[in-house]
Write a structure and sequence with these properties.
- This protein has 212 residues and is α+β, with helices and mostly antiparallel strands.
- The protein has one domain: Methylpurine-DNA glycosylase (MPG) (3-methyladenine DNA Glycosylase, Chain A, Roll), CATH 3.10.300.
- Strands 1, 2, 3, 4, 5, 6, 7 and 8 form an eight-stranded antiparallel sheet that branches.
- The longest helix is centred in the middle third of the chain and has 8 residues.
- The radius of gyration is 16 Å and the shape is globular.
């Protein structure tokens, strides 16, 4: 589905949305919202269909857990900024910093349903047959997101998140996060959230496990 977006109609999420204390609730609330990028004259947008929550305190799967480094410094700032890091030296993964200064919570955006700029997304993805924006590295490539955008204010005009014009009814499922086996007992936290039956989710979950 391709849509024409009048960005003046879409309201950016306010800082207060990101500065709430519960990163798990924010991860669920981001589902159905629209991530937008506008770079090099290209506007691209996709509906967020999969997220993962990470807590900066006591969560062994979180980059900021027990350590503050130059890479994670942006996570310790106010909510509403982007944290983009390089995974395996190849994939650029985009996270939304949440909570208030010093807390270091973040939500990883894991998959998008493309809405706008699909031709440009395909070109960025080198016309691969793989799903256009299913998976965190894949969606970043499709949307033109790289580590250069870490620290970007999500209330400005390079990358931002908006409310859709119409809110849809959706079933939210939860599961354990992906690729965090090193986190011991925290690897079992059911902090990955998806929109049920969406074809762009990177990995299906058991439908018997609904989010509370």
């Amino acid at each position: 589905m391709v849509l024409e977006i009048n960005t003046s109609v879409y309201e950016k999420l306010p800082r207060s949305f990101y500065q709430r204390e519960d990163v798990v609730e924010i991860a669920k609330d981001l589902l159905g919202k629209v991530l937008v990028t506008h770079m090099d004259g290209i506007l691209a947008a996709g509906k967020i269909v999969e997220t993962e929550a990470y807590c900066g305190r006591g969560d062994k799967a979180c980059h900021a857990n027990g350590k503050r480094t130059p890479r994670t410094e942006v996570m310790y700032g106010d909510g509403g900024y982007a944290y983009v890091y390089l995974c395996y030296g190849i994939h650029h993964l985009v996270n939304v910093v949440t909570n208030v200064e010093g807390k270091a919570d973040a939500v990883l955006i894991r998959a998008l349903e493309p809405l706008v700029g699909m031709d440009e997304m395909m070109e960025r993805r080198k016309f691969t047959k793989a799903k256009l924006s299913s998976g965190p590295g894949t969606l970043s490539q499709a949307m033109g997101i790289s580590t250069e955008l870490t620290g970007t204010d999500l209330l400005e005009d390079r990358m931002w998140i908006v409310e859709p014009e119409e809110k849809e009814k959706m079933e939210i499922l939860s599961d354990t996060r992906i690729g965090v086996e090193y986190a011991e007992e925290d690897a079992l936290k059911p902090w990955r959230f998806v929109i049920a039956d969406n074809n762009y989710v990177s990995k299906k979950v058991n439908k018997k496990r609904k989010s509370g």
